[in-house]
Amino acid sequence: MSSSVPKNSAQACRCLQSLSENALMQEQLMELDCLLPLKALLTSSTPVWTESALTLLSTLSAHPPNNDILMSEGLLNEVGQLLHHPRSSSGIITHCCKIITDLCSSNTGAQAVMGSLCLPGLLSVLLLPALSDETLLHVTSCLHHLTTWDALRAKLSATVTPEQMLCLVKLSGQMRSSQLSFNSAAIISQLEMTDEILHLLRPHYTDMSKYLLIFLQKKDIRFQQLGIVTIFNLRKDGDFSSLLTNSELEVQLWKVHAQTEETRQLLQMIQPLSPTSVNP
């Protein structure tokens, strides 16, 4: 990997990536200080060489014992800068998302993400033209994962732009990929409903009502719950409450309520089994 010929370094990355599925091999790689040549490849102007380094790094980051070392070497800073690069390929973006998700799961990961360009980088990627649904799925999954931390959720709420919000609303309403729709709508539902966020959402209430109605009509409980939570959050705004009143969305909301109440009553008819009867 330390070859002065980038093509040779990239080929070495691919070989090591095949070997690094083994945990013992990963430990040896980290002991050999493999990060220095890998970080050098990340700055390559050739995307395929950068991607080969990221492929190996994403394999390493998937192994939790490596994460503290990877963060101490400033890997998140490198990843954040790559996401801002206009020539980043789908493969580069996908591996960046995997690395961010893995590193953020560690004890100090969320704070490290806060100090990097990862969050604004992920948001900026949403606006890239001609991204595939598969790549967008990785981006929205990563963003949704980051919103589980209060500090990152607050930062996302403070930095999202009107263009990025419009993109999230459009992705929530597309029905060709249900998981992409769910991820995007979940990100919106996690935002802090400040005056600024409500101001960004207000022009999209009609479109949001359409996808929320579809969510409530789905049999998948995840979508129903996400729809209910989003409606609850948006009802804080009088404009949305007015739109909801006597609408098809409100009718469907009461249908879901009635179904839930019926289920609750049926469950009450069942005498709960004691632990001893289940596990004699």
UniProtKB/TrEMBL annotation:
Gene3D superfamilies: Leucine-rich Repeat Variant (1.25.10.10). It comes from the Eukaryota. InterPro entries: ARM-like, ARM-type_fold. This is Uncharacterized protein LOC114427521. It comes from Parambassis ranga (Indian glassy fish). The lineage of its organism: Eukaryota, Metazoa, Chordata, Craniata, Vertebrata. The gene is LOC114427521.
